[in-house]
Amino acid sequence: MYETKLSVVIVNYNVKYLLEQCLRSVQAATNGFDAEIWVVDNASTDGSIEYLRPRFPDVRFIENTDNPGFARANNQALRICRGEYVLLLNPDTIVGDSLRTLCYFMDGCSDAGAIGVKMIDGRGAFLPESKRSFPSPWVAFCKLFGLSKLFPRSRRYAAYSLPYLSPDKQHEVEVLSGAFMLLRHEALDRVGLFDESFFMYGEDIDLSYRIVLGGYKNYYIPERILHYKGESTAYADKKYLNAFYDAMLIFYRKHYPQSGRWMSGLIGASVGLRKGVARLFGWKKAKTPKPKRRSVLIFCRAEALKTARDRVAERLPEAVVFRQWDLDERRAMDALSRRVRMNEYTDMVFCYPDMTFDQMLLFMDRNTDKSCVYHMYYPDSGQLISPGR
Q1: pLDDT of 111
Q2: pLDDT at residue number 251
């Protein structure tokens, strides 16, 4: 019935260098595996297609002349992709070597409709949206009015992000993230594609909900990926806030019609409260203060050191200390096992392919210092990818 084992679908909008990095990692993860890769470009103006097509001739590109939104763009590829399993992936991600393992899990677990994974950010910190519960009216009330923050370990008040479930263990959960969602194509055929009423947020919650209603289960598997988490979107700006809560209204009117009126009032009150705070303090995204002096540890082989250091110095003029961890002589993980003082460094640079993507992710996850900023350097293109850049 299906012509290939895995279809990878990525929607792009003006993040060509992040997408280049993502495609590198996907190609490395699927090397020798029966897979196809689709990129749907939503009318990017940064030259994404012209830049990426010659670099990735095996990738199938769909070029839109406008931006139809995340849900509709994904559906364009979902209607024509040929994989038994479909991976929906954000362009601001890096995957490791786990894609085959996850497909094998699906092979052996016929009730699995979708799989999510352990997502970490650009500092190696766990992202709680990796596993969530359905935003029922009570769960939404606790989240919207801050009870989940007041009682962060409570099963009753903090149920949305499931903080009481270990991020390092497998769980059956209700909601997975659209940044990485591995789907059984058969389940999509049964429950339908993304609801295109959702433009930018909420479509993953809706699809997760319908998968469960369709008789399948959603699983969280602690295989790690990097997700820069909306590098092109300011989390707290007015446009984001309105889009997010509009998506929640669509969800409640669709799945909780009996609660629609009072949930609309609840969400409206929450939006009004947030906007009132914004009028007092401004629409600003919370940012970690930048250090005045930076110390940088570069993981590379000898031949890549000079170009890596020059590129980092250009990007981080406040860097005053540069040290190399010579991968010709020592493994990257030895820096942790030998208890090198990681907190001496504000930044670490991983050079590819001197380090594999899997090694990068493992290091970031295992390093207990979550204040360090990680950068990825690619000597063949000269690109340095940094969080927020």
Answers
A1: 98
A2: 79
Same domain for 214 and 92:
yes
28 belongs to a structural domain: yes
pLDDT value of residue 100: 97
Do residue 313 and residue 336 come from a single domain? yes
Question: Residue 65 CA to chain centroid, in angstroms?
Answer: 25
Does the pTM surpass 0.85? The reply is: yes
Residues 115 and 81 in one domain: yes
Q: Are strands 112-120 and 217-227 parallel, antiparallel or unpaired?
A: parallel
Q: Is 350 exposed, middle or buried (0-12, 13-18, 19+ CB in 10 A)?
A: buried
The pLDDT value recorded for residue 138 is 83
Same domain flag for 213 and 326: no
Task: Tell me the β-bridge partners of 181.
Answer: 88
Residues of the chain with pLDDT under 50: 232-236
Note down the domain range covering 332.
Answer: 294-385
- Residue 149 within a domain: no
> What's residue 253's pLDDT?
78
Q: Does residue 268 sit in the same domain as residue 350?
A: no
What's the CATH number where 23 sits? 3.90.550.10
Query: What is the number of domains present in the chain?
Result: 3
